[in-house]
TrEMBL record, chain A:
<keyword id="KW-0812">Transmembrane</keyword>
<dbReference type="Pfam" id="PF02508">
    <property type="entry name" value="Rnf-Nqr"/>
</dbReference>
<dbReference type="GO" id="GO:0022900">
    <property type="term" value="P:electron transport chain"/>
</dbReference>
<feature type="transmembrane region" description="Helical">
    <location>
        <begin position="134"/>
        <end position="153"/>
    </location>
</feature>
<dbReference type="InterPro" id="IPR050133">
    <property type="entry name" value="NqrDE/RnfAE_oxidrdctase"/>
</dbReference>
<dbReference type="GO" id="GO:0005886">
    <property type="term" value="C:plasma membrane"/>
</dbReference>
<dbReference type="InterPro" id="IPR003667">
    <property type="entry name" value="NqrDE/RnfAE"/>
</dbReference>
<comment type="function">
    <text>Part of a membrane-bound complex that couples electron transfer with translocation of ions across the membrane.</text>
</comment>
<keyword id="KW-1278">Translocase</keyword>
From TrEMBL, chain B:
<dbReference type="InterPro" id="IPR004338">
    <property type="entry name" value="NqrB/RnfD"/>
</dbReference>
<feature type="transmembrane region" description="Helical">
    <location>
        <begin position="71"/>
        <end position="89"/>
    </location>
</feature>
<comment type="subunit">
    <text>The complex is composed of six subunits: RnfA, RnfB, RnfC, RnfD, RnfE and RnfG.</text>
</comment>
<feature type="transmembrane region" description="Helical">
    <location>
        <begin position="47"/>
        <end position="64"/>
    </location>
</feature>
<keyword id="KW-1133">Transmembrane helix</keyword>
<keyword id="KW-0812">Transmembrane</keyword>
<keyword id="KW-1278">Translocase</keyword>
<dbReference type="GO" id="GO:0022900">
    <property type="term" value="P:electron transport chain"/>
</dbReference>
<feature type="transmembrane region" description="Helical">
    <location>
        <begin position="125"/>
        <end position="143"/>
    </location>
</feature>
Length: 193, 347
């Protein structure tokens, strides 16, 4: 149990995928203009990340490893992720048409979210065991959601600030993301992983 | 008989940002005096050097944006930022440490966002965190309190201090630098806290200096509360949550965790609680929000001090809560009278 808690703390705070490992920056910058959209995106990404880390673990352990074709792992994970995203898209479209419209192009773009592929590959490298992989994927997703939601609340405030013309929009967003990442450095050393 | 009717607000004196900032500057004086008294000339020099740089940079930025310079300089917010960085830096830190800090604070953390009132992060704490991450050696060698050295006040002369800060002759002060109490408690190498209190010279003899400095900041903070510069919510919530966590851990394992009094009176706890966390721009807005904001800082300070790599966590804790503040505001907006509770979140 303590192990799982440490994995969660490590992935959410210490090695946050967005702010410390700099993965998944495209949705982080792209969908963070409004808090509500960011929350929808977080939920969708959490679902995809957890499910894809489960599927990629199963594919790796029961298909690639026995056949000794682990060098195909990157390409097969991309396929697995694409399937999971397609599935999520169908679910969101059925259950929340409004959210489906709000997320727009970013929902299918979860496929190209490097955090998703990053988690699948890091899972193979760092984690051992089925439950570990699920917890790692879930923790990574929570970390991504935390960063995205806090960032979008912040950007709503920055939009109304008197930012100098050359820095408006994405530029000041990048500066803010940098300062957030500086703040997250404070968690260094909480967990050694 | 003529009756003079005046409508509210019945303010007998117009308040403005400048007067608020001047009151804050005044409240830092006891702390500045205590720091100078116990740790020598260094702090005073840092504060003056920082103020000079901050005013020059602020003026340059405002000029670049073609705004009225004197109007923006007389809100004194740049000066407050500089004084806070000066109080937070080690007294013998070289001049370029302060220079980098001021450039980051004024340009990146403040002016890029459009100047005072728009910055999401506290500029002084952004500068401090950046310096701590970038220059760990300069930022962690603190001056020893004079009570430890026994040669009377200002063991390191004014000239030596100046040459240590602005020259290359750091050797003159090297003998007088040491770790902070928090640093010693954090890296105690297998000893229990009780053993450290007896074994370590600074903890055994010099801790009084830190208590006095904290008391001075506390006095300044109470003065600001009395002047109604900020409400009690943020500092009380922060100190209460830190005390609660420290007391619980101390009662459970007294040989592993320092006592709550130690947490409250060393490091930047008091400076952070009264002068930095209460920054009206970067903290939460509503009273309920301020309670959450303060409690979050207390929790993070305890967590990072106890398990993290950095011995004093106030800067990081405040930055982390700064980035939560807009989110807290979103969910602690008070209900306006006669309106239903707003329905926020996903629809």
């Amino acid at each position: 149990m303590t192990d799982y808690l440490l994995i969660i703390i490590s992935t959410v705070l210490v090695n946050n995928f967005v702010l410390v490992q700099f993965l998944g920056l495209c949705p982080f910058m792209g969908v963070s203009n409004k808090l509500e959209t960011a929350m929808g995106m977080s939920l969708a990404t959490t679902f995809v990340l957890t499910l894809s880390s489960v599927c990629s673990y199963l594919v790796y352990t029961y298909l690639l490893a026995p056949l000794e074709i682990t060098y195909l792992k990157t390409i097969s994970f991309i396929l697995v992720i694409a399937v999971v995203v397609q599935f999520t898209e169908m679910v969101v479209r059925k259950t929340s048409p409004l959210l489906y419209k709000l997320l727009g192009i970013f929902l299918p773009l979860i496929t190209t979210n490097c955090a998703v592929l990053g988690v699948a590959l890091l899972n193979i490298k760092k984690m051992n065991g089925f439950v570990d992989s699920i917890v790692y994927g879930f923790g990574a997703a929570v970390g991504f959601s935390l960063a995205l939601i806090l960032f979008s609340a912040m950007r709503e405030r920055i939009t109304v600030a008197d930012v100098p013309a050359p820095f408006q929009g994405t530029a000041i967003g990048m500066v803010t993301a940098g300062l957030m990442s500086l703040a997250f450095l404070g968690f260094t050393g909480l967990v050694q992983f | 008989m003529s009756l003079i009717r005046i409508t509210s607000p019945h303010a007998h004196r117009p308040g403005n940002t400048g007067s608020v900032m001047l009151t804050v500057l005044m409240a830092t004086l006891p702390g500045l005096a205590a720091m100078t008294f116990f740790f020598g000339w260094g702090t005073l020099i840092q504060v003056l050097w920082g103020s000079l740089l901050a005013i020059a940079l602020e003026a340059a930025c405002v000029k670049l944006r073609q705004r009225p310079v004197s109007f923006y300089l007389t809100d004194y917010s740049a000066l407050v930022t500089a004084v806070l960085i000066g109080l937070a830096l080690p007294p013998f830190a070289p001049w370029w440490v302060m220079t980098v800090g001021i450039i980051v604070a004024i340009i990146i953390a403040k002016q890029l966002y459009g100047g005072m009132g728009s910055n999401p992060f506290n500029p002084a704490m952004v500068a401090y965190a950046l310096l701590l991450v970038s220059f760990p050696i300069q930022m962690t060698s603190w001056a020893g309190p004079f009570v430890m050295n026994g040669d009377g006040w200002a063991v390191v002369s004014l000239g030596d201090t100046l040459s240590a800060i602005f020259g290359t002759a750091g050797a003159a002060v090297d003998a007088h630098t040491m770790a902070t109490p928090l640093d010693i408690m954090r890296h105690r190498g297998g000893f229990t806290t009780e053993e450290m209190w007896v074994k370590d010279a600074l903890l055994a003899n010099g801790i009084g200096a830190w208590h006095a400095v904290s008391a001075a900041y506390f006095m300044g903070g109470v003065f600001l509360l009395y002047k109604k510069i900020f409400t009690w919510h943020t500092p009380v919530a922060m100190l209460a949550s830190l005390t609660l966590l420290a007391t619980l851990s101390f009662l459970l394992m007294p040989d592993q965790y320092p006592d709550p009094f130690f947490h409250l009176t060393t490091g930047a706890t008091m400076l952070g609680a009264f002068f930095i966390a209460t920054d009206p721009v970067t903290s939460a807005t509503s009273n309920k929000g301020k309670l959450w904001f303060g409690a979050g800082i207390g929790l993070l300070v305890f967590v990072i001090r106890t398990w993290g790599n950095y011995p004093d966590a106030v800067a990081f804790a405040i930055l982390l809560m700064n980035l939560c503040a807009p989110f807290i505001d979103q969910y602690t907006q008070p209900r306006s009278y006669g309106h239903a509770k707003p329905n926020r979140g996903m629809k």
